[in-house]
Amino acid sequence: MKTIIEPFKIKSVEPIYFTTKEERIDILKNAFYNPFLIRSNDVLIDLLTDSGTSAMSSNQWAGIMRGDESYAGSPSFFRFEETIQQITGMPLVIPTHQGRASEKILFSILGGKEKYFVSNTLFDTTRANIEFSGAEGVDFICEEGKLPSIPAPFKGNMDTDSLIKFIATKGAENIPLCIITVTNNSGGGQPVSMANIKAVKKICTENNIPLFIDACRFAENSYFIKLREDGYADKPVNEIAKELFSYADGCTMSAKKDAFANIGGFLAMHDEALALQCRNLLVITEGFPTYGGLAGRDLEAIAIGLMEVMDEHYLQYRIRSIEYLTNKLIAEGVPVMQPAGGHAVYIDAKAFLDHIPVEQYPGQALVGALYLEGGIRSVEIGSLMFGKYGEDGKLIPGQMELVRLAIPRRVYTQSHIDYVAEVIIEVFQNRKSIKGLKIIEEAPMLRHFTAKLQPVE
Q: How far apart are CA 186 and CA 280, in angstroms?
């Protein structure tokens, strides 16, 4: 098989700033060992997130010039609306400035005390918006999804048996919504099968619970279905995506992921009464319903990006590039989430730094080590992000201790990825010298964004 090349040409470039290891020691210390507090100019390879960090295409930039900035009724909105209707089959489309704005609106309306939102796995901002409403988010990841080193084709699936038991225990009337995240970001970027989506839909229908899709990476998930699920090999990705959405009552999306956009998001649904409530709140918090906190130019870029992302040459390259880095690490014994996910490589920090207890945040310690060694910025998805405190004040750890290296779309080349692999392998070979961390300052919600830490002596 020939090398899978980048399905694009580079038309504009941005310089990378180089720092020395000595400089990075001071930078990391001054950032209190939190990558979110490091200035981007001090980062060599930025894998903190794939959200809003993609390179837009020449067609998207042309769309930005075409963007109409009318306050109401902009043609850019109607192109945006029509594109989303075409992809999802959902008639009611509400633009927002990003995914968490969609979540804030939705959960402000549906949430509240003594309510539960069930999911395969909720990501950080989704869970925060649920909890801010007074409700509780509950994850039912399948058993194979809890085992990073054991490959399985659809480790992002929801555990339907646990879902059924939970509904029976808590009562369907106390569960306003079921959410399936595709791909499962907190679970290692792993895909969800169409069979699992259909099974969850059946359970939801039987219990009169609406099903929403968190569609940030719908195209990547649809391509995994094409590659791994029986009956889909000959179907185009746009048809697979349309079937995926057909089982849902609505969806939220951060367009900063699979739409290649630098900002934006939306809510889409079938329920006119819920849509009316969402639009009413949108006007208060985001803007008029035909711009929703976005410039017309952004609506154009999103509409174009949503179509571009379903190009199968791009998706083949995208999935293969993540697999390429994953396989290089596996060959050197680095413990990673297997098989490769769609948008990121996930290192199993608990196994990588098995000498650091979870209460000393091995994932965050590894994030710091990767920055010190090679200027690579990554993010912890473990007990700093998802851990809580029990009544006794002790840490209740996250489900897994992962470090995510999210690859921005159409930004880095193979030589960049080879460099990342070399840095990770070098850190792995010297892992016993890495120390744990302790928190010295934290916020009550989404603490990983602003927390300050220091090494444990």
A: 31
